[in-house]
Amino acid sequence: MNTDYTGLAEFHWLIEVMQTVDVGVLVLDLEYQITAWNGFMENNSGIDSADALGRSLFDVFDDLSVEWFKHKADTVIQLRNRAFTTWEQRAYVFKFRNNRPITGVTEYMYQNCTFIPVIGTTGKVQNLAVIVYDVTDIATSKLELKAANDRLAQLSRTDGLTQLYNRAYWEEMLSNEFKRQKRHAHDLSLIMFDIDHFKKVNDTYGHQVGDDVIRAVAEEVRHNSRNTDIAGRYGGEEFALLLIDSDAENALLFAERLRKAIENRRVSTPEGELQVTVSLGVAPWKESFHHYNAWIEAADKALYTSKDEGRNRSTLSK
Amino acid sequence: MTVPLLVVDDSSFARKQVIRALPKGWDVEVSQASNGEQALELIKAGKGDVVLLDLTMPVMDGFAVLEEIKARDLPAVVIVISGDIQPEAEARVMKLGALAFIKKPLDSEQLHQVLSDFGILSV
Amino acid sequence: MSTDVLDEELRDCFQELSNVAVGRAADLLARLLNNFVIMPIPVVNLLERAELSMALSAIADASSVSAVCQGFTGSKIAGEALLIFNDASFQDMAELTQFKGEITEQIELELLMDIANILIGACLKGLAEQIDVSFSQGQPYLLGQHINIEELLNRNGSTWQRLLTIELPYKLEGREVNCDLLLLFTEDSLAILRNKMSYLLE
């Protein structure tokens, strides 16, 4: 009598704990019908246990992917092995609105879940328990941190004035492409170019206008190159461009198009419109380059030839 | 008659477990090998009329030992005692001529049963 | 009892227990994928802190691997499992799980977690049962995704000097699937494990 009562009391508080614990507890039978549904599930889904018990899980959550869930559940049941899902893999399994007016920053609750095979008295798996953890706080702070890091990474590789890649990052990209080229050669060409008589622009019109000129040239680079091309500001008035899938002929055509575009561009100054020109050196990839520096040198050499021959022109490296 | 019995496993702990699990009073002369190559040497030297063989071993694994025994028609009766419990592993060793497949961790009663089922104890 | 060295007898015993545990995990994986799993030979070692750092940095450097970490604890034994999965394996994994369509990053994560759940879960269970304990597993973490491995190493404030490691390189027969499972046990666990083993060794 006494032991019965103790047993009952124990059962009562066990249920009470399961009801109030701050994780979701959901138990299913092998037909995916809900056999247990605790307070966390009630409160977050807005569905009372009276309305949930005995119903198919997929009726209660009509946006739950049946195929995905069954694959997880079947593996757990057949292999009698726990399975874990993380918010990184799937933001949530059960779509619960995140209803916090002040601290809520996401629309839905991020969840980690544990799938547990429940072995019955027969020694066979008779139920599947799913434990649902609310990890919204962790997930959002990780995501924010990642966004901030991405932003920092982007800042650290961008040239402030032109929004092209800065020299350090551009060289890193060149180095990567160079290594790839050594393994697997594609058509690839390098263009180095600079603004003719830039010092005179600065001396005559001041640095403000000098900056405007550099920005205008960068804009033409952006307009005329493709997304895959890798463009950077190499030095003060020097630019570098890596053209993916471009042989010598294509690269020279591109250089000429860019040269003309810049020649036709007008930069407004307090003293009227200003025209600038650029000199370019084009160096297609060669097997004989042992370091990417040799490639830059080849393009630079061609650039000097352009300068020597009167500027505002493109030269193909020999 | 004393039976030349060979226990093959890369783990000495596992070999000890197997030897400890042998039926009491069974008249055997036990030899041990820690890989397939040693095992074949000993079988050729007449030390392994009955072989209790592990599968996963360095140098030469249990599958290769069974292949050699089959190819050279060596006079050895092989019972596999394996941690690799994939049904495919069992199917492969049976096809290669093993007498029986016992899963690790070794249950001594199961070993006794197999030994008596195949009449090895009474030899 | 010194924990400085792993004597041969104990190492051998660990290796055999791991072998049995690994066999169970391989069996489950083979059933899930319907493909024969080549059983790895477990490598048992005591790893110095610096060596683990080196191993993890190597993972961080290789952009072509994914990793999952999962802590476990029970009966005063604790540690972490680390599954390192070669990204080249995803294509074959997708085929084996009958997945059709493009392999997005999302799908890769699903595949990775499926494998991690099975290999880590079954290995731990197999080991635990043999030494008559049971482990509870924490939530798994994806390394490299939102957690930078180098940062993790730097901020790791624990004071352990060496770990017991069990290394399990899994392969699928006829497939380009490669993954390494590392079970790491804390220094404190070593004495307890030694104790549990001693009665297996008599």
UniProtKB/TrEMBL annotation, chain A:
EC number(s) stated in the UniProt entry for this protein: 2.7.7.65
Pfam families assigned to the protein according to its UniProt record, in alphabetical order: GGDEF, PAS_9
NCBIfam families assigned: GGDEF
Domain PAS stretches: 10-80
Coiled coil location: none
Gene Ontology biological process terms, A to Z: cell adhesion involved in single-species biofilm formation; negative regulation of bacterial-type flagellum-dependent cell motility
Protein name: diguanylate cyclase
CDD domains: GGDEF (cd01949), PAS (cd00130)
GGDEF domain: residues covered: 186-318
GO CC entries: plasma membrane
Catalyses which reaction(s): 2 GTP = 3',3'-c-di-GMP + 2 diphosphate
GO molecular function, one term: diguanylate cyclase activity
Cofactor(s) demanded: Mg(2+)
UniProtKB/TrEMBL annotation, chain B:
Highest taxon listed in the record's lineage: Bacteria
Protein name per the record: Response regulator
Any GO BP annotation: phosphorelay signal transduction system
PANTHER family recorded: PROTEIN-GLUTAMATE METHYLESTERASE_PROTEIN-GLUTAMINE GLUTAMINASE 1, STRESS RESPONSE REGULATOR PROTEIN 1
Record flagged with keyword Phosphoprotein: yes
Domain Response regulatory residues, every copy: 4-119
Keywords: Phosphoprotein
Modified residues (4-aspartylphosphate): 54
CDD domains hit by this protein: REC_CheC-like
Automatic annotation (TrEMBL), chain C:
InterPro entries according to UniProt: CheC-like_sf
A single GO BP: chemotaxis
Superkingdom of the source species: Bacteria
Keywords linked to the UniProt accession: Chemotaxis
Listed name of the protein: Chemotaxis response regulator containing a CheY-like receiver domain and a methylesterase domain
